[in-house]
C-alpha cells in the first residue's frame, strides 16, 4: 500500500515531520507557500546573488538551530515531493486545492499534517492603518529577509518575547529605535518564575535583549496604555499613557504585535474541531497529545498552527505528529519521542502568556472611530452598534457589519473584533464565538480558480 | 516622489534592476519584493478602497492582504510575496 | 403559550408573515430552530428579480416588488436594495426560444421586458463575453443584501409585537378540535388556531405530519465574492439554464454563484465544493471576461428545498383547515418573501387575498387521491 502523506508548511514543524516520515521509508509531499523552506523564524534569504549576511547575523542565538534545520531538509529533499511557492487555499476530504505560479492544482492525499505556523496577534489603536505601521513580525521580515528597516525611527509597541528581540535586531542594525513600549507589567519579565524556569535558557535570552536595549539608552517601558498613532498620510509619532500621564514619542514607523496567533484556517477546512484555550486566550484546533486532530481521522497538526509553543517545541511537535501518523499506519517507530521536553515547553508558554498577556482590557476603551477591520474599513463603533441591536455572536456581527469579510478573512481583526464585542456585551471572549474560515483561505484569481474547468 | 518609508540597512551590494512604477522607471535591487521595491522610494503602496487613505501593507508575510497592487496587464500582485523583476510594470491604482 | 397564529421557521418568509400578521393586530408566535434569518434567507445570492420566474409566480412577485420599493418604511432599512435591472442571457440558439417564450408569457401578466440582440448588448453592455447571443432585460429588477434584510424582517416582526422564539426546534405539530398543538424539542408547547409552515429546507417534514407528502429536494446553492473593483457591471445577470448568476455591488465586489455545494444529512450545515467553485469561476469569466484577474476572497453556501416543478408552495393545506404552507423557495424566497408574508397574513386573517396564488398550491404535488 502506498499511503500518500501531505505536509503543509515548510517551517520547523513541517520539516521535522517530513524528516521522521522519510526515516521510516515514506516519501511525503511537502507544500510550502514560501519559495524556500525555513518558515518565518528560519526564513532564508532570496536565492539571488549579492545577499551576504550569514546565519549568525540573521538568526543570532538560533543560528545553530537554523543551520541544523536547513541541513535536515537538504538531507531528506531527494525523498520528498517538494512543492515550494505553493499555497493551499482549500481542502477537501481527499485532496488539497493549491495555487502555485498562478495555476490551480489538486493534490490527492490519504493523511495530512498541517504545520501552518502563526502570525502576529493584533490589538488595534487609532492610527494603526497609517503607512509606517507594520506588524512586529513584518518588521522582522523586512530586516531579516530584505535588509530593510520599516522606517528611520521606529517605536516597538506590544507584548511578548518577539518585541525585545526585534527591537534588539533593529538597534543592532543601526536603526534608531525610539522606544520599546509594552502593555505588560514589569516588562513581562517578573511573573511566574517557576514556569519560566521550565526553559531557563530561553527566559534568559529575553532578559539579555532588554538589558542590551537599556544599555543603549533606548527607553524600554512597561505597563503602558497605547493612546494613538499620529500622522496624516504616514506615521509622525505615537502617544501612550505611562502611569496615567500622556507621553509622546517621535517616530516614522511603529512595529505592532501582542504575541502570536495560530494560523488555523486550513485546519478548520480540513475538519478539525475547535476549543477555546484559556491560557492562550484564543480558539485552537483540538488535538490529542500526539497531534491527532480530534474527530477527524487522518489529520495531524504540528507546530504553532496548533497553539503557540515556539520554534523549539515546533520541531518536537513535528516529529511527534509524524510518529502518530506512522503508528496509525501500523509502522513500528524506530525512535522514541521526547514528550517530557514538550511538556516543559508547554509550561513555559503558559507562564509566558501570563507574564506578557494579550491586552484584552484595551478593547473596551478603543474609540468608536477606530478601524478594527482594515480590509473593509469597519470601526469598533460599528461592532458595538451591532451589539446594541442584539447580536451576540461574532459571525452574526460579521454578517451585519462586514467585519472580517475582506481579503484577509478576519485574520487580523478577528481576535480584536471578538474582544470589542465581548467587552461591549460584558461577557467572556469565548462566549461570542470565533470567525469561521471559508475557502479560499487566501485570495485566488478567478482565472486560476477556473483552471481548465468546463 | 518624496522619501521612501523603508530604509535599506544591509544587503545593498546586489544587482540594480529597473522596473516601471505607475509608468515611471524606478530602481530596485535584485531580490527585493515588490513591496520593498516600492516602499524604499515611496511613502505608501496603494489607496484603501473604501476610504481613499494611503496604505503600505502591514504583515509582510502574505496574511493581511493589504498590499495588493497590479501588473500593467491587470493581474493582481501581492506585493510582499512577489519578487520584483527587471522590466516589470507595476500599477498601484486600478 | 397561546396565540392567534404560530409560524414555524424564522427565515424571510416566516418573519415577513409574522410581521404582517402582527401589523394586523393579531398575536403571533414564530418558532425558529436556530437564529432568525441566518439560514438560506441570510446567505442567498441577493437577486431581487421578477424576470425569469414561472408565470404562476408573477402576481406574487409583483406584490413583493411593490413592497421592496418602500422596504425601509416596513422594516427600517432598505437593505442596500438597488434597482439595477436584470439581464437574462442566451448562450445558444436553443436558449433564444426560451428567452422569447418567457418574454411573451410575462408580457401577458404585464411585466415589461426588452429584447436585446447581440448588437444591442454590445451597445449597452459591451463587457459581455462573445458567446452571449442575446438577452432580455427587466429594468425594474435589482439586488439587495440578504445579510441585512433577513434579520431586519425578524427585528421588525418583533417590534410589531410578534413573539420570536429562537433556539426552538419544532418536533411535533398536531391539529385537533380546531387548534394546533406545537411541541418544541426542549418540551415547551404552543397553541394556536392557525399555523404557517415556513420551515424552509425542513418544511416537507412538517407537511408530512398533516398527511401531505411532498418531495422536497435539498438544494445547496454555492456563491462566491471577489475583492472590490471599480463599479462597472450594473445589471444582475442570469442565464437560461440557471447555472450562473452574477451581480456587482456599488461597493465594488462581484458576487456570483452557480452549482451546488454539499450539506450534511439533516441539512443543518453546508459547505462549498472546490470543483463547483472552479466551474462557476470558469463560466463567470466567460460571461464577463474582464473579471478574470479579480481575486475570489470568499465562498459560501446555504440550504433550501426545491420542489419538483421549481416553483414554491404557497397557500392553504389540502388536509387541514387553518394550516398554510409557504416553502420550496430555493432561488425564489428572497424576492418573494416580503410578498408571501403580506398575502399569507391576508389569507390567515381576512380569509382572502387579491393576489393570485392559485397556481402555487400544494395540491399540485399531493394531487388527486
TrEMBL record, chain A:
<dbReference type="InterPro" id="IPR017224">
    <property type="entry name" value="Opine_Oxase_asu/HCN_bsu"/>
</dbReference>
<dbReference type="Pfam" id="PF07992">
    <property type="entry name" value="Pyr_redox_2"/>
</dbReference>
<dbReference type="InterPro" id="IPR051691">
    <property type="entry name" value="Metab_Enz_Cyan_OpOx_G3PDH"/>
</dbReference>
<dbReference type="InterPro" id="IPR023753">
    <property type="entry name" value="FAD/NAD-binding_dom"/>
</dbReference>
<dbReference type="GO" id="GO:0016491">
    <property type="term" value="F:oxidoreductase activity"/>
</dbReference>
<protein>
    <submittedName>
        <fullName>FAD/NAD(P)-binding oxidoreductase</fullName>
        <ecNumber>1.-.-.-</ecNumber>
    </submittedName>
</protein>
<keyword id="KW-0560">Oxidoreductase</keyword>
<feature type="domain" description="FAD/NAD(P)-binding">
    <location>
        <begin position="4"/>
        <end position="315"/>
    </location>
</feature>
<feature type="domain" description="SoxA A3">
    <location>
        <begin position="376"/>
        <end position="451"/>
    </location>
</feature>
<dbReference type="InterPro" id="IPR036188">
    <property type="entry name" value="FAD/NAD-bd_sf"/>
</dbReference>
<dbReference type="InterPro" id="IPR041117">
    <property type="entry name" value="SoxA_A3"/>
</dbReference>
<dbReference type="Pfam" id="PF17806">
    <property type="entry name" value="SO_alpha_A3"/>
</dbReference>
<dbReference type="InterPro" id="IPR041854">
    <property type="entry name" value="BFD-like_2Fe2S-bd_dom_sf"/>
</dbReference>
Automatic annotation (TrEMBL), chain B:
<dbReference type="InterPro" id="IPR036010">
    <property type="entry name" value="2Fe-2S_ferredoxin-like_sf"/>
</dbReference>
<protein>
    <submittedName>
        <fullName>(2Fe-2S)-binding protein</fullName>
    </submittedName>
</protein>
<dbReference type="InterPro" id="IPR042204">
    <property type="entry name" value="2Fe-2S-bd_N"/>
</dbReference>
<dbReference type="Pfam" id="PF13510">
    <property type="entry name" value="Fer2_4"/>
</dbReference>
<keyword id="KW-0560">Oxidoreductase</keyword>
From TrEMBL, chain C:
<dbReference type="Pfam" id="PF01266">
    <property type="entry name" value="DAO"/>
</dbReference>
<dbReference type="GO" id="GO:0016491">
    <property type="term" value="F:oxidoreductase activity"/>
</dbReference>
<dbReference type="InterPro" id="IPR006076">
    <property type="entry name" value="FAD-dep_OxRdtase"/>
</dbReference>
<dbReference type="InterPro" id="IPR036188">
    <property type="entry name" value="FAD/NAD-bd_sf"/>
</dbReference>
<keyword id="KW-0560">Oxidoreductase</keyword>
<protein>
    <submittedName>
        <fullName>FAD-binding oxidoreductase</fullName>
        <ecNumber>1.-.-.-</ecNumber>
    </submittedName>
</protein>
<feature type="domain" description="FAD dependent oxidoreductase">
    <location>
        <begin position="4"/>
        <end position="347"/>
    </location>
</feature>
Amino acid at each position: 500500500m502506498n499511503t500518500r502523506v501531505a505536509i503543509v508548511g515548510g517551517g520547523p514543524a513541517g520539516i521535522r515531520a517530513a524528516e521522521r516520515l522519510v526515516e521510516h521509508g515514506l516519501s511525503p509531499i511537502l507544500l510550502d507557500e514560501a519559495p524556500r523552506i525555513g518558515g518565518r523564524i528560519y526564513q532564508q534569504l532570496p536565492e539571488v546573488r549579492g545577499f551576504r549576511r550569514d546565519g549568525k547575523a540573521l538568526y543570532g542565538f538560533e543560528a545553530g538551530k537554523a543551520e541544523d534545520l536547513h541541513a535536515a531538509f537538504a538531507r531528506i529533499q531527494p525523498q520528498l515531493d517538494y512543492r515550494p511557492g505553493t499555497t493551499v487555499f482549500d481542502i477537501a476530504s481527499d485532496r488539497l486545492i493549491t495555487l502555485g505560479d498562478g495555476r490551480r492544482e489538486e493534490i490527492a492525499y490519504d493523511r495530512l499534517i498541517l504545520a501552518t505556523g502563526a502570525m502576529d496577534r493584533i490589538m488595534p489603536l487609532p492610527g494603526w492603518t497609517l503607512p509606517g505601521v507594520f506588524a512586529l513580525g513584518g518588521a522582522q521580515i523586512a530586516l531579516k529577509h530584505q535588509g530593510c528597516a520599516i522606517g528611520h525611527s521606529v517605536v516597538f509597541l506590544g507584548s511578548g518575547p518577539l518585541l525585545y528581540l526585534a527591537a534588539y535586531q533593529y538597534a543592532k542594525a543601526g536603526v534608531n529605535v525610539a522606544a520599546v513600549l509594552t502593555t505588560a507589567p514589569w516588562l513581562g519579565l517578573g511573573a511566574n518564575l517557576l514556569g519560566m524556569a521550565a526553559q531557563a535558557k530561553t527566559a534568559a535570552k529575553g532578559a539579555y535583549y532588554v538589558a542590551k536595549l537599556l544599555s543603549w539608552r533606548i527607553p524600554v517601558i512597561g505597563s503602558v496604555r497605547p493612546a494613538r498613532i499620529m500622522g496624516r498620510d504616514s506615521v509622525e509619532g505615537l502617544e501612550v499613557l505611562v502611569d496615567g500621564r500622556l507621553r509622546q514619542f517621535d517616530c516614522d514607523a511603529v512595529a505592532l504585535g501582542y504575541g502570536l496567533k495560530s494560523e488555523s484556517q486550513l485546519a478548520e477546512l480540513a475538519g478539525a474541531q475547535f476549543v477555546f484555550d484559556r491560557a492562550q486566550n484564543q480558539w485552537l484546533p483540538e488535538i490529542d497529545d500526539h497531534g491527532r486532530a480530534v474527530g477527524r481521522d487522518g489529520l495531524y497538526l504540528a507546530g504553532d498552527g496548533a497553539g503557540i509553543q515556539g520554534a523549539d517545541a515546533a520541531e518536537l511537535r513535528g516529529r511527534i505528529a509524524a510518529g502518530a501518523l506512522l503508528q496509525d499506519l501500523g509502522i513500528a517507530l524506530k525512535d522514541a519521542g521526547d514528550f517530557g521536553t514538550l511538556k516543559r515547553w508547554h509550561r513555559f508558554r503558559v507562564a509566558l502568556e501570563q507574564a506578557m498577556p494579550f491586552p484584552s482590557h484595551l478593547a473596551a476603551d478603543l474609540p468608536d472611530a477606530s478601524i478594527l477591520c482594515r480590509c473593509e474599513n469597519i470601526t469598533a463603533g460599528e461592532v458595538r452598534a451591532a451589539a446594541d441591536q442584539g447580536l451576540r455572536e461574532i459571525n452574526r456581527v460579521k454578517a451585519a457589519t462586514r467585519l472580517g469579510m475582506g481579503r484577509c478573512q478576519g485574520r487580523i481583526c478577528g481576535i480584536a473584533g471578538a474582544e470589542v464585542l465581548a467587552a461591549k456585551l460584558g461577557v467572556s471572549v469565548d462566549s461570542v464565538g470565533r470567525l469561521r474560515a471559508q475557502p479560499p483561505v487566501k485570495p485566488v484569481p478567478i482565472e486560476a480558480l477556473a483552471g481548465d474547468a468546463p | 516622489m518624496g522619501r521612501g518609508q523603508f530604509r535599506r540597512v544591509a544587503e545593498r551590494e546586489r544587482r540594480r534592476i529597473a522596473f516601471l512604477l505607475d509608468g515611471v522607471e524606478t530602481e530596485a535591487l535584485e531580490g527585493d519584493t515588490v513591496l520593498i521595491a516600492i516602499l524604499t522610494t515611496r511613502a505608501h503602496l496603494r489607496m484603501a478602497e473604501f476610504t481613499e487613505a494611503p496604505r503600505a501593507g502591514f504583515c509582510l508575510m502574505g496574511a493581511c492582504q493589504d498590499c495588493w497592487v497590479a501588473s500593467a496587464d491587470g493581474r493582481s500582485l501581492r506585493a510582499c510575496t512577489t519578487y520584483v523583476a527587471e522590466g516589470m510594470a507595476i500599477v498601484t491604482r486600478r | 403559550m397561546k396565540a392567534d397564529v404560530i409560524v414555524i421557521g424564522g427565515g424571510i418568509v416566516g418573519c415577513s408573515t409574522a410581521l404582517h400578521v402582527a401589523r394586523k393586530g393579531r398575536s403571533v408566535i414564530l418558532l425558529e430552530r436556530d437564529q432568525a434569518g441566518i439560514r438560506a434567507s441570510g446567505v442567498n445570492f441577493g437577486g431581487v428579480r421578477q424576470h425569469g420566474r414561472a408565470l404562476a409566480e408573477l402576481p406574487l412577485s409583483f406584490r413583493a416588488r411593490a413592497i421592496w420599493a418602500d422596504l425601509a418604511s416596513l422594516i427600517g432599512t432598505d437593505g442596500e436594495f438597488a434597482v439595477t435591472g436584470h439581464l437574462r442571457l442566451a448562450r445558444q440558439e436553443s436558449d433564444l426560444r426560451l428567452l422569447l417564450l418567457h418574454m411573451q408569457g410575462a408580457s401577458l401578466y404585464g411585466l415589461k421586458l426588452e429584447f436585446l440582440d447581440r448588437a444591442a448588448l454590445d451597445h449597452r453592455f459591451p463587457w459581455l463575453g462573445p458567446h452571449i447571443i442575446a438577452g432580455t432585460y427587466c429594468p425594474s429588477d435589482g439586488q439587495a443584501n440578504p445579510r441585512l434584510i433577513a434579520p431586519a424582517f425578524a427585528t421588525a416582526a418583533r417590534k410589531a409585537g410578534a413573539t420570536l422564539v429562537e433556539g426552538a426546534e419544532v418536533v411535533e405539530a398536531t391539529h385537533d378540535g380546531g387548534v394546533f398543538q406545537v411541541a418544541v424539542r426542549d418540551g415547551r408547547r404552543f397553541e394556536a388556531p392557525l399555523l404557517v409552515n415556513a420551515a424552509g429546507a425542513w418544511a416537507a417534514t412538517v407537511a408530512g405530519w398533516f398527511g401531505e407528502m411532498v418531495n422536497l429536494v435539498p438544494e445547496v446553492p454555492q456563491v462566491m465574492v471577489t475583492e472590490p473593483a471599480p463599479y462597472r457591471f450594473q445589471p444582475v445577470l442570469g442565464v437560461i439554464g440557471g447555472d450562473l448568476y452574477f451581480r456587482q455591488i456599488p461597493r465594488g465586489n462581484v458576487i456570483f454563484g452557480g452549482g451546488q455545494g454539499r450539506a450534511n444529512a439533516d441539512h443543518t450545515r453546508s459547505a462549498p465544493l472546490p470543483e463547483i467553485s472552479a466551474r462557476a469561476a470558469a463560466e463567470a469569466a466567460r460571461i464577463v471576461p474582464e473579471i478574470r484577474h479579480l481575486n475570489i476572497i470568499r465562498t459560501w453556501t446555504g440550504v433550501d428545498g426545491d420542489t419538483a416543478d421549481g416553483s414554491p408552495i404557497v397557500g392553504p393545506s389540502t388536509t387541514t383547515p387553518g394550516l398554510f404552507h409557504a416553502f420550496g423557495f430555493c432561488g425564489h424566497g428572497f424576492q418573494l418573501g416580503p410578498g408571501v408574508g403580506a398575502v399569507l397574513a391576508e389569507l390567515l386573517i381576512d380569509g382572502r387575498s387579491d393576489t393570485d396564488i392559485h397556481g402555487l398550491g400544494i395540491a399540485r404535488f399531493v394531487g388527486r387521491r
